Amino acid sequence: MAEEMGYEVPSKEAIDSTPKTGFAPLVADDYIAKVVDIQLHEKNDWNKLTKRYDGPLVWSYTIVLSICGLKSGDKIEDMNGKEGQPFTQFLYKDLNPYSTGFQPDGTPSLLRGFISNITKTDVNAGLKVPTFILLKNVEGGNKEVVTDPIIRGEYYTKMASKEFMAGYMAVPDIRGFKGKYVGCSIITKESDKKGLKNAINSFGKVPNSFTITDELEALAEKNYVEYQEKIKAYREKKGAEGSSAPVGSVDVGEVEIEEVL
């Protein structure tokens, strides 16, 4: 009978020296990012009872940020110590279109922080956005987007006079900020499905010293097109298998897909 071999548990030194594979979150820090997409869409709200996004339909902005670099100018690194490249990491963030104020402790809402830093305006001052989206109350407590120029004009006239128009509500239209750069504070947090993941904690201004070249802009465009192709291929594959993409983080190789829809 062959002698039974024991089982050896590797030391911490051995584990740390083993090359890491797969996706790892970025190191928590302050970054500069390009806003590569902004979508306004209806989605199911968070249900506190089921702890799932299966609540009533609400309007939400979803912005997609492509990480350009660190505000400090240091190299991008993930939590495994692997160096990252500009515009190869993409993060999603939902913003409540109705929330433009402050929390009780004085912290600005994420949407207010986004607008103030994109427009380089003091977060406590009045903010100006070029246009607005008009929503109308409909049956069931939902809202629909109003595109009729006559109704929009009537609402704008009343809004300028600080009057109200019953059954309607305007929210800032931030879709025109697509293509702009913004600072963002990125943290790591636990994900139910994949352990640690990145999340956008707040927005900040882009340093005055920051400059973008035509070469970097072309790289940002190229990488985002390739990223979208990966998303499309992934969803087509999941559809062929009779399964929809899950909510959470989906690793498809070189980039991280955040399913938020």
Tell me what you see in this structure.
The chain has helices at residues 12-17, 110-118, 149-160, 214-240, and strands spanning 29-44, 57-70, 90-95, 132-137, 143-146, 168-172, 181-191, 195-204, 248-251, 256-259. The chain has 261 residues and is an alpha+beta fold. The chain has two domains: 22-128 and 177-259, no CATH class; 132-172, no CATH class. The strands form three sheets. Strands 3-2-1-7-8 form a five-stranded antiparallel beta sheet. It has a three-stranded antiparallel beta sheet with strand order 5-4-6. A two-stranded antiparallel sheet has the order 9-10. It starts with 11 loop residues before the first helix and ends with a strand.
Helical residues, percent: 10-25%
Coarse structural class: alpha+beta
- How many beta-strand runs? 10
- Poorly predicted ranges (pLDDT <50, ≥5 residues)? 242-261
Strand order of the largest sheet: 3-2-1-7-8
Number of discrete helical segments: 4
Q: What's the gyration radius in Å?
A: 22 Å
**Topology order in helix (H) and strand (E) letters:** HEEEHEEHEEEHEE
Euclidean distance between termini CA atoms:
59 Å
- Number of separate domains: 2
Main sheet specs = 5 strands, antiparallel
Strand content: 25-35%
State mean pLDDT (0 to 100 scale): 84
* Basic shape: globular
